[in-house]
Amino acid sequence: VADDILAGHQADAGDQAELARRFVIELHLLIRLAAVHEAGNTALQKPAGRLRAVIASLSEANPGWRFRLVADQLFVNDSRVKLDQPIFHAYTDLVEELKRRSIGGITFERTPTEDELLRFAFLIQHAQVTPGLDTLEMTLEGGGLGFIRLDQWRETVGRPAGNPKGQVRRAARETFFGSIFLTGGLLQTVDRQRVVHVRRARRVVQSFLDLLGKDEDYLLGMTNIKNYDDYTFNHSVNVTILALNMGRHLKFSRPQLSDLGLSAMFHDLGKTMLPRDLVNKQSRLDDDEWKIMIRHPVEGVKKLLRIKGVSQVTVKMILSVYEHHVNFDFSGYPNQPLTDRAFLFSRILRIVDSYDAMTTMRSYTVRPKHPVAALEEIWNLSGTHFDPDLAKVFIRMMGIYPVGTIVQLSGGGIGLVVGRKDDGEIRPPLVRVIAHWDEQAPTGEIIEPAEAGDSSIIGYYDFGDVPVNPAWYLLTTEDIYPE
Ligand SMILES: [Fe+2]
Ligand SMILES: [Fe+2]
């Protein structure tokens, strides 16, 4: 279609819309390619040629046309570029790229040559990310590209949200990574200053609860990333998020949830007193090391008993810290149960803590378990290690294929679980098809896998088998999500 338009001379309104879409696609592609190719690479010639043709057609139809970014939406003159599935990736990615460089608009005073467009793409791609446009404009002028004018991007305050989920996700990422740092600080102050900053900790818990209420799948997905250096802090955050979501599914009250979150956050407090090399050790622990490691619940309790000002939540924390490795059948450690049944928080922590440890590289196991396999293990050990009722709640909450899992589809597709359908109890996975054995088959769409037959899930890929961390990719790439 686009080629016909480019060839034709009388463009009507529909053609204009198509040209605008082509402009977005080609500009995005060229900027992206400039990130991975050397200048002068022939792979860039064709896209540059296509972009040039689109610009020429746009200029012919409307001399003085402008391309603008306003409140997350792209415009050619006053018409908004329609955001639909085929250009979703290019559109949203381009918006992010432009915003990152404070570019709110581009005007071409004349149609650039292919070579000029290539230089433009490289300059944009490799521009220093600065809050203003001054440096970038100077670079363009210096490179003989002064005829390409840029407008400053401005955040529109109080605008109706273009993509409310996108905002929630940005907030979720900031909260998540920020909380790892904060949690580290909170754990260390207990150690050094004998205080628990309860109010600060509750604020972190509160922000997790807010985000879980808005986009549960996304925050749960973040707990899958696990490529970190300091195991205990990130693990504590994951355990807190998973425990809080268990509490939500169990219909805990707000104050109860807050206490559960605090208990989860501090559950491995005792580890901050063990040698760091031991805690972060990747290989299996020998007998002596293990003997030290299993002291951490008791060490944690000792720490909590020394803090100034014991309150009701401290008591809940003490119980949780003491019992979080005690199994449902009272195997596990310490092997001196306090009562004839572990405290509810401890039984929740037993499950979510095991799940996070099992699926993490830096636990005591050599190879991490795939989330699907970890859920199977929890199922198999329910009634012995885990409270069977709580295990059921946990598995239902995670789904058989948790967000961030790479699955194999019948018919030759490979997909990434990007979310779950809001559909009663079961909540089947939503899968984005990321590759297909049949090169002709469409990829990129989000499907709800069938129960059986074509496009049903027939297996999953181990994280070690794919070159990227799927969770990381999933959670840092805005455009991969369903709305
Ligand atoms: Fe522990
Ligand atoms: Fe733990």
Account of the protein in words:
- With 483 residues, the protein is of the alpha+beta class.
- It has 18 helices and ten strands.
- The protein has helices at 2-7, 13-36, 45-61, 88-100, 114-125, 134-142, 164-193, 198-222, 231-249, 254-265, 276-279, 287-293, 296-306, 312-323, 344-358, 371-380, 388-398, 470-476; strands spanning 67-70, 73-76, 79-80, 103-108, 148-152, 406-409, 413-420, 429-436, 446-447, 457-460.
- The chain has a five-stranded antiparallel beta sheet. The protein has a five-stranded antiparallel beta sheet with strand order 9-8-7-6-10, with no helix packed on it.
- It starts with a helix and ends in a 7-residue tail after the last helix.
Keywords, separated by commas or semicolons:
483 residues, 5-stranded antiparallel sheet, 51% helix, binds fe (ii) ion
What ions, cofactors and ligands are bound?
fe (ii) ion
From the N-terminal CA to the C-terminal CA, the straight-line distance is 28 Å
Q: Mind telling me the C-alpha Rg?
A: 27 Å
Shape: elongated
Topology overview:
Blueprint: H1 2-7, H2 13-36, H3 45-61, E1 67-70, E2 73-76, E3 79-80, H4 88-100, E4 103-108, H5 114-125, H6 134-142, E5 148-152, H7 164-193, H8 198-222, H9 231-249, H10 254-265, H11 276-279, H12 287-293, H13 296-306, H14 312-323, H15 344-358, H16 371-380, H17 388-398, E6 406-409, E7 413-420, E8 429-436, E9 446-447, E10 457-460, H18 470-476
Antiparallel strand pairs: 1-2, 1-4, 2-3, 4-5, 6-7, 6-10, 7-8, 8-9
Helix pairs in contact: 2-3, 2-4, 2-5, 3-5, 7-8, 7-9, 8-9, 8-10, 9-10, 9-15, 10-14, 13-14, 14-15, 15-16
The structure holds fe (ii) ion (FE2) (2 copies).
